[in-house]
User: Fold APC family permease from Acetobacter sicerae.
Amino acid sequence: MKNAATSPPPASPSSNLQGNLGVMSIVMMVVAAAAPLTVMAANSPLIIAMGNGIAAPLDAAIATLIMYLFTAGFIFMSRYVTNAGAFYAYIQKGLGRQVGLASATMAAASYSFIVIALEAYIGYTVSELLHNALGVSIPWWILSIIVVMVVGFLGYRHIEMSSRFLGIALVLEVGVVLLADLVIVATKGVSSLSTEPFTVHAALSGSPGLGIMFAIYCFIGFESTVIFREEARNPDVTIPRATYTAVFGVGLFYIISMWCEVAGFGVDSVVPMANEHTGDMYLLLIRSYMGKVSEDIVNVLLITSLFACILALHNVVVRYQYIMSRYGVLPAGISSVHTEHSSPHVSSFVQSCTSFVGLLILLMLGLDPVTQIYAWGATAGTLGYMAILSLTCISVLVFFNVRNKGLGSVWHTLIAPVGGLVGLLACLWIAIANLPALIGGDNAGVAAWGIGALVIVTFACGYVLASHMKSRYPLRFEALRELA
Assistant:
């Protein structure tokens, strides 16, 4: 009899996830992770204040182009990767199992950092809203734990339940932003949409690198379409369509909405406004054009937007853990599929426990939910995310130009991946160079070094684990080939 530790883990079809997600269902799942309303309220003022001012819509356009170049190679490679391993599988396909597993641990950890950061932030936001609106004082961490429990429940259920909730939340938040765009244009006229934000002069003003970097942040999660492969209807068609729809849909939304935001304040006033009111700039825009009631509605929708983002990213981490468990990297029980809901319910429970324990430790350390937990967690997660995107571009280039020459067009296998890689590496370098300023607060330099080291450690742990499997459990290591 073979030793269970050295035998490849079973991956029978009966243990697969099941679903009937169409293009729009998957698009809503991944676009919800980008949290469009939160981007407009929280990220767009940063692009204007810390980036290149009125050129924010141009930054969004450049970020869209970078994401498209990445997607062109990523999705073309998807025809040669037939599982739900996402970056794990794609990087392994070109760069080998050890780098692939290292990227998987980095990706799962990066998304987890962002999830915990958002859970702390939403707890603080809801606490402040209840205090200001109703005079009720509830500690932020209690509300954060409630969010963890609700997200865990939805993750435990069938994926269609999460999809329906995310769809409703997404329609509401996108709808209110588009309505604001229409009201601004109707009030100020089409002529207010000046072409000045798209000029070379505007593009090179301020810090264009930071502006584009913040715009790249706005796309987090769009590539996770491939993670839902097992739960998609006709995945060979659905996944590429959903990914391209997400990239161009999100990109066009940001370009138009940031352009209207600049027009709403005026090209001469928007930068001073962003510097003076970074935290509530977009809410002031809503109040100015749509009244106090609309501002209150947007405040509530900001919370649902944050919740939708947390749920979407929770589902991404859950599926990373699920696929790693199926191939023996994590304990086998994590890949259990619920008999009724066809969901990775154990993995969802594990991720909920991770969030709970993480928040508890951070609370015991006395860290501030916004300036420390959110700022540090989101920064660490985003650095890891951008590193994984860059590794994926390199993997695409190696797979098509070193290991399998002659497959596909030059555009999909060389030009687009190189363009995406150059853009992503430039943004990653800018992020690292400006890390202390992005983190802010006291001891920013120390925190920056700690965050950088944490991201590197998540990659190193996966590489060491793969090396250990290769030497001690060769059959299990060999089974990782199936992920590619």
User: Anything to note?
Assistant: The two ends are 28 Å apart (CA to CA). The mean pLDDT is 85. The chain is about 75% helix and 0% strand.
